[in-house]
Amino acid sequence: MLKVRPERSPRERILTLESMNPQVKAVEYAVRGPIVLKAGEIELELQRGIKKPFTEVIRANIGDAQAMGQQPITFLRQVMALCTYPNLLDSPSFPEDAKKRARRILQACGGNSLGSYSASQGVNCIREDVAAYITRRDGGVPADPDNIYLTTGASDGISGWRSDGLLDMTSWLQTILKILVSGGGKSRTGVMIPIPQYPLYSAVISELDAIQVNYYLDEDNCWALNVNELRRAVQEAKDHCDPKVLCIINPGNPTGQVQSRKCIEDVIHFAWEEKLFLLADEVYQDNVYSPDCRFHSFKKVLYEMGPEYSNNVELASFHSTSKGYMGECGYRGGYMEVINLHPEIKGQLVKLLSVRLCPPVSGQAAMDIVVNPPVPGEESFENESVEKESVLGNLAKKAKLTEDLFNQVPGIHCNPLQGAMYAFPRIFLPAKAVEAAQAHKMAPDMFYCMKLLEETGICVVPGSGFGQREGTYHFRMTILPPVEKLKTVLQKVKDFHIKFLEKYA
Amino acid sequence: MLKVRPERSPRERILTLESMNPQVKAVEYAVRGPIVLKAGEIELELQRGIKKPFTEVIRANIGDAQAMGQQPITFLRQVMALCTYPNLLDSPSFPEDAKKRARRILQACGGNSLGSYSASQGVNCIREDVAAYITRRDGGVPADPDNIYLTTGASDGISGWRSDGLLDMTSWLQTILKILVSGGGKSRTGVMIPIPQYPLYSAVISELDAIQVNYYLDEDNCWALNVNELRRAVQEAKDHCDPKVLCIINPGNPTGQVQSRKCIEDVIHFAWEEKLFLLADEVYQDNVYSPDCRFHSFKKVLYEMGPEYSNNVELASFHSTSKGYMGECGYRGGYMEVINLHPEIKGQLVKLLSVRLCPPVSGQAAMDIVVNPPVPGEESFENESVEKESVLGNLAKKAKLTEDLFNQVPGIHCNPLQGAMYAFPRIFLPAKAVEAAQAHKMAPDMFYCMKLLEETGICVVPGSGFGQREGTYHFRMTILPPVEKLKTVLQKVKDFHIKFLEKYA
């Protein structure tokens, strides 16, 4: 690489750590992942030929399906290619149903081109397709395109650590929370989030100078959400802030639990009682593996609970192109649906979204294919179904495989991976390991993950980055690697763990 | 559309105009464009068959090239299609040079797919291509890929009003300013911006609670930047804030002036003297039309001024896929180059960028083609050159045409459109029109533009949205419509203006 900075020492800079915005430093610490930085250093060392007990770093820290070898869904890429280079619409090598969708999307774009701006809320026909998808998903509960907002990377930030280990702050969460946050001192807005949480939440909350209100998921009960715990948390919070928002992640990240319908009803009733605005992060709605689990959207349950709730409870829910079986993280497509939002606030929201972001049109188009896949009778339906089944079937196998193998390891307990794409096993660390960690000024599970990385090349994220009950330790690992590779990874973790226990016994 | 909100009146909402974040309301007013909202209403009325003195709304308010009929550059779309659907790499109907670039981009993507995350600073090989482009552009002045940050829509927000009339706040400006803003009271960070400005700047500044410091461009001198005016502005500002940042837009938006090399030298010397961090918005660097004007990058001039400057002056400059001859607004690709940034701050920047945004990989790929077009000897060079020449040649014609026609109208004065893609003519309004506007509680040029829209369907943006000297009135109009259409638009404006003058004589 070229060297720009000349050798002679410059005069003092205007922008230094001392002169910079202190708030930025604060935010950064909330989301920084030293493990993943270390992984980058090790990769460089491997490239430089430095010998290690392993030949590659396996980035099991991030939910990046295609980076792990998952093939893109053919139909989605065909439509995207047709939209990108419309000359292909004359090509016989593309199926008619893909061309039909591409034409429809292009007709809705300025100048029939992905290269034009779209309205800030998103391309109209795509918002209509999203609404139709939601209506189908929720068994006929109507969805209004006016309530749909297409966003940039609605879920990338929610879906996993970035490849560089830093969280990608998502537009929707910042946008909706920015509108919600107000007051000062004891009337500062309190935002309830699950622990373990996805650190995006704590980062946005601290950046917006809101108050984080923790509620703990029940690890002994497959990470279920217990409404009594919500009550405890909100009561305690009222002493020092004004709890106004309740964040739900279902299926859970990092914990992978899938909430029962009953649980969702209880949560909605609680939100109604306590006048809390519901934020439902539902980006893993297609990623449900346990045969005895089903995804229920908050929207659907809300409507089934009757008008007292469906007319009153304010809800924003989120989905994206990054997860499901498409796994198109790079397109950064996503949507937000709002329910019972005050009309004036909808105006504010559209304005703020417009100010904050412009959804890339290619990402919007990708979102359209996610919600509008081939249907029976269409040329591509068969192939699409095979590809979909293969991705989701494999994920289900790997979820079970991971749970089983972890639970064979002494000192590791792993709840069932009911959904999403991560395992979040609990690791029982000997006192000596905890002392060693303290000597290194590290959280014990950070110490453990760092050793795991250094000795095996496997990069996972310590539970301390997500939050966990005092004295418990975990790590988050994606199940995205191909089955054979995943088996190797799990075996390596097992061997490492046993050695680790011996060393610090 | 489906109706979701039931009829029965809901209980009081949690989120209302009263309870929401007051800061959001404040920001919104800085960027809201009522004219463009009105344009939307009129379009709906036309769709409903309501008769108007015109058949379509012409959105001359936004720099949206392809929406105005500009065809995408074939090569760029070919490479993008190949990256999107790699099966096409086997197709004989795509040129080898396009395939070569697509392969190179894909090899740099996780899993060889645009569907994977990239590093938060952007794909390495694309940052290298950007650095090589800058080095070529600046006649050999070296650029370091480490100083390049690929961003989301580095310039969409800078390039024009959104189609819905709201500004798209851009990531780079928020990110770099967020790091720079600090202090309170009189030590609050002051940010110098040109007047007329692109309202994105005032919006970001107010949102970050920094202090806006205006310097006026010299309309009598083709909107030139005069360093004495910078001196006046910074001296006055020091009474109430700490001026730390100087924003430059070159070529100018909305004013279209192209800064001379001498002017840039003076600005850099001033920034050096006053210890100001330079933000150079150079997204129109390819859009220079006046034969006696040339684009000089701040980076190049900085280096030619010698080590005292090139080692010390801190600079961030910006470019994007949206302008130039590619006009790919929808891809939201862009980059920022930083010079003399403190190494620690570069770390902070990469962290903040990672937190703030994830550049969509398709936008990064599009940026790569913008900076890495076909070269002589490559298969696509000829066609690319023809397409490029046609776009830029037409823009130059239209720039001259617009200036000439406006200056034929009594009561309109239009400076030469040296660059960018807008005219910002001054309109001399009769006292009676000003009174009528005041009676309608509108800025006089807002009143004028509203009437223009209602009577002709032509949507332009009043100068009051950009800032202008007290008692002067302007509007901004894009020159992007095809020549024949542009002539019609200009004729309609002329006829309207003459009638307007008669009416309020």
TrEMBL record, chains A, B:
The lineage of its organism: Eukaryota, Metazoa, Chordata, Craniata, Vertebrata. Residues 189-492 form the Aminotransferase class I/classII large domain. It is an enzyme of class 2 (transferase). GO terms for biological process: L-alanine catabolic process. One of its GO terms (cellular component) is cytoplasm. Pathway: Amino-acid degradation; L-alanine degradation via transaminase pathway; pyruvate from L-alanine: step 1/1. Signal peptide: none annotated. Belongs to the class-I pyridoxal-phosphate-dependent aminotransferase family. Alanine aminotransferase subfamily. Homodimer. Its EC number is 2.6.1.2. GO terms for molecular function: L-alanine:2-oxoglutarate aminotransferase activity; pyridoxal phosphate binding. The keyword tRNA-binding does not apply. Pfam families: Aminotran_1_2. It catalyses: L-alanine + 2-oxoglutarate = pyruvate + L-glutamate. Its cofactor is pyridoxal 5'-phosphate. Keywords: Aminotransferase, Pyridoxal phosphate, Transferase. Catalyzes the reversible transamination between alanine and 2-oxoglutarate to form pyruvate and glutamate. This is alanine transaminase. Transmembrane segments: none annotated.
